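Input.
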Amino acid sequence: MRIRNQDTIQRLAIALALPVLALVASPAITSSAEPPNETSQETSPVADAASDAVPAPASAETTQPAPDAEEFFTQGRDALFGGQYDWAIELLGQAVAADKTKTSYRLYLARAYRYAGQHEQAATQLDEILKTSPDHVEAGQALAEIHSEAKRFKDVVRVLEPLLKYRHDYLTYHMLAEAQYNLGEHEKARKHYEEAVKLNPDSPSDHYQLGNIYLSGNFFALAAESYQSALRLGLDSAVLHYKLGSAYFNLRNYFGQVTIQTVKSGQPGTISGKWYLIEPVPEGKDVFRCAPEASAAYQIAKALADGIEDRPDIHVLRATIYLNARRYAQAYEMFTKIGDTVPKEDKALFAYYYSQAAFGTGQYDRYLELLQEAIQLDPEAYKSTLVDAYTKVAQQYNQAGQLDRYIEYLAKAVAESPQSALLHHSLGNAYEEALKHDQAVAQWRMVLDLEPEHPQRMQLLNLIGKYQSGLSFSATPAEPPQSEKPKPRNPNPAKPKATKPAAKKQ
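Output.
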């Protein structure tokens, strides 16, 4: 058909537009509508043209609006708690991409990453949260947990310390204290553990770690209290018993309040319930002197019974408990048994303690021999104890009425410390008692040479005048017998306080 004039063109345009408007306006047209009946509808050139110009209507699926950020988040959260971690990451990632301002979306995405084992991706999301919301405690704690698991303790401190200004939270104090403890910052860790146990007094691990800090700082009473709290709350281990025993030892609580108990088939040196069996009581069968739980002896024995590593230092500590409790025979026997197992670096300390046990059992030569071992191994620590050792042995012989041995060991002390006016005075008095007046006068003169204003100056001058007839003024200090010089050998404790021998009364 040919279009000959303008009116005809306008009529054709109107005819073409009408079917399009009908399609747009009609709600009844859907993708499921049946095609029209070809036999009942006439075709025309206008209809054909309209058919070519208007596209087929879209299906319902293609016209449905895309899900928004909240819908992605809801679906992702459900997938997370349903254990579909990868699907949760995809959905929550879309939620974050759709709305980057929602910290809750990032927090759940970080959780999904953590559950999926992708910790660094989780850390990235948590860092983003803290950049925009530095007071987001939950995100900070989650990030600190990731750093703690990776042993990045400096990062834990960096993340958590600023959060304390926003909330005093137990978990923050706990993780911060743990990180600082691992960094060796014990004073800071102590303060934060103390805050943690205030907020959560039922945490045995916090009490235990606090006890470790107190023990290393020599706050033994506080350490014992913290370890007791950990035990009471159910934390029970051989190492804990050992540390509690160490705290009691340093508090000089060696055996505690000793009581008499009947224990059927009991054995000394073992644990029976709440008692440590020290030794049998001769008067009765199955009757023992016992130490309670609140004692070093009990806790060390408990640690050994519970399978702590069998180390020499534990046995040395146990023997030293007996030594300090003046049970010298048992201590000496224990030291003798473990001597070959003590490592070289601990030999000096061991020899010193061993020597004290020997002294307590009256083995004075053995005492000096073992002390020489300690001096040989660590002269700086133990050389100064030798003078006191000679005077202690001398006093023992004096009390036993053996004047010659008393003089012998006083002379050794003088040779070791020739500048001591006190020792010269004591040796002079001993010589006087042995009727060796010339040697006595020589020692008294040395006292006055060393201390011209000695408190007993006039008394000494009178004694010298009494015995000086025929005495030469060139007397020399007494020499110790060469055959009695102790033999140096090998072991390491705290230096004992030197006790000055009292002057012999005339």
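Residues 217-306 form one domain.
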